[in-house]
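Researcher: I'd like a candidate sequence for this fold, 265 residues long. If you have to choose between options at a position, lean toward the conservative one.
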């Protein structure tokens, strides 16, 4: 089987994108893991299938690099919107369906290599406060931990321990370490399914922005975020512990395209 693909990244969070409308491909776990392997395959944090979805511009299925289908991916949602535009499915806006329901997206840039994509996230509420931080679900579960110096954190070790904590069983959680600055927050994320730190995480920075607004009242209705992969912005309406009209905004970049053989995998 010869599989055409395109590679994108959203502020360093990288993905393999596949047009899966016709005839449609049902990937095996080991095939996705092979494609995402940075030594043996193409290499990516995850893989997405763009499919036909009645009543929508397209459908989105997301798989983590371990090969398992996962929950919503914010940066992935922004990248698949850019991918859909390149396929001629949309112009500058989209309405698509993902595992957590309907999403709206807007493309505000015009460059064919890098553009700016705004993605509407699902409404959410602060789930639980723990000694370590704030837990909430922004399409994927996140524990947001506030720290004085995010660069001093061993994200792989400390994030891995919290990811497997029994309080978040059976699925575990993503873990975001957040340092609050004067006019922005700096976020580093341990992603479940990748089982490592990623350069950026869309649902993670969204969770971090909302948790910051909850913990530190008086926000202006938006939050500027710095990640190791680039800058993002989250805007929202807040009603105490509840959040609506949440938009994640940042750059999405086309990297390269190609074909890969899956015979025997």
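Model: Candidate sequence:
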């Amino acid at each position: 089987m010869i599989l055409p693909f395109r590679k994108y990244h959203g502020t360093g969070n990288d993905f393999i994108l596949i047009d899966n409308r016709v005839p449609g491909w049902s990937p095996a776990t080991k095939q996705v893991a092979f494609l995402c392997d940075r030594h043996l395959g193409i290499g990516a944090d995850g893989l997405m299938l763009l499919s036909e979805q009645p009543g929508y511009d397209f459908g989105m299925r997301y798989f983590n690099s371990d090969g398992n289908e996962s929950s919503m991916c914010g940066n992935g949602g922004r990248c698949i919107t850019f991918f859909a535009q390149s396929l001629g499915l949309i112009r500058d806006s989209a309405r698509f369906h993902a595992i957590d329901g309907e999403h709206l997206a807007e493309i505000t840039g015009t460059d064919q290599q890098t553009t700016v994509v705004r993605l509407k996230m699902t409404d959410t509420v602060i789930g639980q406060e723990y000694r370590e931080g704030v837990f909430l679900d922004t399409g994927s579960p996140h524990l947001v931990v506030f720290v004085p110096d995010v660069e001093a954190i061993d994200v792989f070790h400390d994030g891995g321990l919290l990811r497997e904590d029994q309080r978040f069983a059976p699925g575990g959680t993503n873990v975001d370490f957040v340092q609050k600055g004067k006019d922005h927050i700096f976020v580093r994320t341990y992603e479940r399914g990748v089982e490592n730190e990623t350069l950026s995480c869309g649902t993670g920075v969204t969770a971090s922005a909302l948790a910051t607004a909850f913990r530190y009242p008086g926000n202006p209705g938006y939050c500027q975020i710095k990640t190791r992969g680039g800058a993002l912005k989250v805007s929202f309406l807040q009603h105490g512990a509840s959040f609506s009209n949440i938009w994640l905004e940042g750059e999405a970049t086309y990297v390269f395209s190609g074909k890969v053989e899956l015979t025997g995998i």
